[in-house]
């Protein structure tokens, strides 16, 4: 499995499996896994990660994009 960083909007689409950092976890860096429901960042890139809403309703910045490609 390869991983991409979540700083570029073009790499993120709804339905994609990602790891995000929630606002409350920014200090610890704890990641939360989920599936993208909505992309909230309008800019083409963001240094801290593109902000997304997961299907669970949680909102955070993408740190890791999970792909099935080895």
Tally of contiguous helical segments: 0
How confident is the prediction overall: mean pLDDT? 91
Q: How is the CATH topology named?
A: SH3 type barrels
CATH class: Mainly Beta
The amount of beta strand, in percent, is 35-45%
From the helix content, strand content and strand pairing, which structural class follows?
Answer: mainly beta
N- to C-terminal distance: 4 Å
Instruction: Indicate the radius of gyration in whole angstroms.
Output: 11 Å
Given the C-alpha coordinates, what overall shape results? Answer: globular
> In this structure, how is the largest beta sheet organized?
5 strands, antiparallel
Extract low-pLDDT stretches.
none
Q: Encode the helix/strand succession as letters.
A: EEEEE
Tally of individual domains: 1
Tally the beta strands: 5
Second CATH tier, the architecture: Roll
Tell me the helix content. under 10%
Walkthrough of the structure:
The protein has strands at 3-4, 17-22, 31-39, 51-54, 59-66. The protein is an all-beta fold and 70 residues long. It has one domain (3-66): SH3 type barrels, CATH 2.30.30. Strands 1, 2, 3, 4 and 5 form a five-stranded antiparallel β-sheet that branches. Strand 4 (51-54) and strand 5 (59-66) form a beta hairpin. The chain is globular. It starts with a strand and ends with a strand. The mean pLDDT is 91.
């Amino acid at each position: 499995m390869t991983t991409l960083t979540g700083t570029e909007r073009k790499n993120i689409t709804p339905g994609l499996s990602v790891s995000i950092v929630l606002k409350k976890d920014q200090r610890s860096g704890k990641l939360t896994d989920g599936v993208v429901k909505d992309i909230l960042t309008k800019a083409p890139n963001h240094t801290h990660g593109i902000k997304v809403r997961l299907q669970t309703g949680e909102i955070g910045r993408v740190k890791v994009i999970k792909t099935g490609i080895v």
